[in-house]
Amino acid sequence: MNQMFRLDTGRAAAFEERMVGMLNEGAMCLMVSIGHRTGLFDAMSRMGWSDSAGIAREAGLEERYVREWLGAMTVGRIVDHEPRTGTYRLPPEHARVLTRDAEAGNFAVTAQEISVLGGVETAIVECFRAGGGVPYGRFERFHEVMMEESAQTVLPALIDQILPLGGDVIARLEAGIRVLDVGCGRGRALTMMAEAFPNSRFVGYDLSEEAIEFANAGAAARGLANLTFEVRDARDLAATADENAFDLVVTFDAIHDQADPMSVLRGIRRTLREDGVYICQDIRGSCHHHGNMDNVLGPFLYTVSTMHCMTVSLAQGGEGLGTMWGCETAIAYFADAGFSKVTQHELEHDIINAYYVCRP
Predict the structure, then answer these.
(1) Which terminus of the chain is less hemmed in, N or C, by CB atoms within 10 Å?
(2) What is the rounded CA–CA span in Å between residue 198 and residue 192?
(3) Residue ranges of the domains in the chain?
(4) Secondary structure E strands in the chain
(5) Does the pLDDT value for residue 333 go beyond 50?
(6) If you write DSSP's letter for every residue of 144-213 in order, what string do you get?
(7) Contact of 356 with 275, CB cutoff 8 Å
(8) Which of 331, 334, 324 is nearest to 283 (CA)?
(9) Does the pLDDT value for residue 4 go beyond 70?
């Protein structure tokens, strides 16, 4: 073999071992997602040691499937197993990140994204060959999963941590102002604000008819007369947004996958009053590949970008910035959109996102 291409056998062996690990861990993401969706983790966290039949009864599931799932959980070292008694338990150290009342955030929620993205793999492969993108409508359960994600990163911190980044925002909300959420999804964040601040008025925009239908149904069920949701394509906001209409605008993980993010940002600036505040949550990362080498979720975020955020933008003929558009790009875009004062913040509970406070 040419000296230039001599094989580093140690490196080759290490990579083979890594590939075996990737196959196992990738498979475990699917099993963790199933454990979340079926309520198995929640059931086991209530039980202590039990056999597969007892766990199946507690969760209201078929024992044969539960037993096989427990095999994956056992060899994956997620649950403990006692062979002599044929019993299993979810250790509390694992339950704290795998149940719906998780203390440290429920990682099983995020594991669902692997199966959601896997559902469009063939369409993504075709995009590699022919270009274009995969539209939002092709992603089964997307808004459902994003609502669960928002319940972890946004809702617990919204009133006490995120909104106070905007200075006197809480006092203004209590007094009564107009608030807009662009890319609101199923509207959980805006609904929480409308309930907490009845003197203010709230509007949510989203492209998805399914998400807006869900959001409006929730607002009606709660009797929130100060809250409305509209199906709206945000790409034309720069030209169509009502001028000086809102005191506070928020976006939660919504800018980077827009078809025309600059138009959206200019529309937000157009509709924001001169003394208003725009609070933007978006992915924390670098626009340079090498700048994300130490990002603990770097591979995951680039995968989400390739298989969702970038492609849904390209499907609309958009810019295709992708998930990892980077803090550098975000700050430059805010400035070009007309925001003269931008500050970047990080919150301890959220390892994925940065929080920007933008003022005219």
Answers:
(1) N
(2) 10
(3) 3-103, 119-359
(4) 80-82, 87-89, 178-182, 201-206, 227-231, 246-252, 272-283, 341-345, 353-359
(5) yes
(6) HHHHHHHHHHTGGGIIIIIGGGGSSHHHHHHH--EEEEET-TT-HHHHHHHHH-TTSEEEEEES-HHHHH
(7) no
(8) 324
(9) no
Q: What is the pTM for the complete model shown? A: 0.90
Cβ count within 10 A of residue 235: 21
CATH of span 119-359: 3.40.50.150
Q: Which of 285, 266, 281 is nearest to 323 (CA)?
A: 285
For position 242, what pLDDT does the model report? 95
Least confident of 145-149, 236-240, 255-259: 145-149
Mean pLDDT (the chain) is 95
| Angstrom distances, CA of residue 133 to CA of 107, 143, 232, 319, 358 | 28, 18, 20, 11, 31
CA 30/CA 111 separation, integer angstroms: 7
CB atoms within 10 A of CB 228: 17
Angle at 262 between CA 258 and CA 268, to 5 degrees: 90
| pLDDT grade for 151, boundaries at 50, 70 and 90 | confident
Q: How far is CA 232 from CA 181, 209, 289, in A?
A: 12, 9, 33
The answer to whether 231 touches 210, Cβ cutoff 8 Å, is no
What's the gap between Cα 311 and its chain centre? 16
Rounded-to-integer distance, Cα 101 and Cα 345, Å: 27
CA distances from 162 to 6, 215, 272 (A): 54, 21, 18
| Percent of the chain residues topping a pLDDT of 70 | 98
Q: How many helices (H) and strands (E) does the chain have?
A: 16, 9
pLDDT band, residue 1 (cuts 50/70/90): very low
Instruction: State whether CATH 3.40.50.1240 applies to domain 3-103.
Output: no
Q: What span, in angstroms and rounded, lies between the C-alpha atoms of 235 and 243?
A: 16
Cα–Cα distances in Å, from 293 out to 113, 202, 235, 296?
22, 40, 32, 8
* 337: pLDDT strictly greater than 50: yes
pLDDT band of residue 218 (cuts 50, 70, 90) is: very high
DSSP label of 50: B
Taking phi first (over 0 means left), then psi (-120 to 50 degrees means alpha), and beta for anything else, what does residue 196 get? alpha
